[in-house]
Amino acid sequence: MDKLFYNTWFIKGISVLIAILLFLMVNADNVNNQPGGIPGITNGLRVMEEVDVTVYYDDDRHVLTQAPEPVQVTLRGPQSVLTYLQLANPRFEFYVDLRGKEAGVYYERVHHRGFSPDLSVSVVPSTVRVTIQEKQTVSFPVEVELINQGEIEDGYSLGTPTVTPSNVDITAAQGIVEQIASVRATVDVSGRNATFQEATGLVVLDQYGNEINVTTNPPVVDVTVPITSPYKEVPIRIDREGELRAGLAIENITAQPSHITIYGPASVINNISFIDGIAINLSQINGDTALTYSVPVPEGVERVEPETVTINIDVTEEEQRDFADFAIGIVGRSEDKVYEFIDPEEGTIDIAILGSATHLSRIERNDLQLYIDVEGLPDGEHTVPLQFNGPQNVRATLERSNVRILISDDSPTEGETGDNGESPATEDEEEDSEAETT
Q1: pLDDT at 431
Q2: Is residue 266 located within the same domain as residue 330?
Q3: 50: containing domain
Q4: What does the pLDDT read at residue 254?
């Protein structure tokens, strides 16, 4: 390549070519006066197909709903100008101007600019149809379509999705706005097992489900899809510690709410029948009280609702009701043993039940249990503690805390007397006695 630039004839040829091009450009105005048919100096013709037509209109008030079809353009003039046009690709434009006009349908002549005045420009068709409509901005609610709903994890359920923002604006021609039936956000929920949020694009549809090519503001919304794990409602068990001070009785203890909703795998929550772990210290209660506790979350449970519970404790003056000669029961006894009370000999004591007047009035004798537990005790005398069971919110005072009993074998041994102190009769003596009677 370097050798060419050092070649004298190559340099001369390039110089001649440049001179010819400059000659054609400088003498473009005198083309018609030049004799002969030298290329570049005579008149020529150029045809341009499918040329777009620009429409100018008041885009703050109107929307272009029908743009003109492309036109065919024929250029006639000096060949040098046509050649320059082809090589230099200058900026030119074909347009119609509807600025200042109202909405409607117009047949407008196509104008052009950017061409040399030496060229003759003809446009086919010379008049085009253009339609502009009033611009409207309308707010539409966003609908959410959840797809693959059957593919969420087993046992989980879908809630109602929410959208932020719930409405979007659409600016378009009146005729297009009237075609809009819905604005939809589509969310795939397959494989989901917890509430999630997703940014989702929007699709504008007509009444037949066909998409309308318009832009929404904003173009993307946030969709929150609540997914609920299996759940069940269970009551709260309230444990008690300590005792009320003397003279006070519990009228009522209630939880607000009384039931808690637990969420989690079905295999876990199906084995839970109540919520425990909440204990009130009665020794700290001096009057009607409301206490707030955090609800314990059982192992394996995902969450609880609500997360706090209020325990209301109503107290009143303590009253007493007496039950005389209350029988002492025996639990844990063996069928082959005899149990005898030594002290008290009758196996009964007097008891006093303390509580509110309301609770005392409802108590029946069979609502109370006074017993001793003899399970595993050997034969002989034993001192056994008394135990009491009764309704909630009452307590018992006993005249004694222990009883003495005797445990013995139920099977009589040889030489044992009967109930009347005599030796048991033999079979022969019984037969003789029967014969004498006869």
Answers
A1: 40
A2: no
A3: 27-125
A4: 92
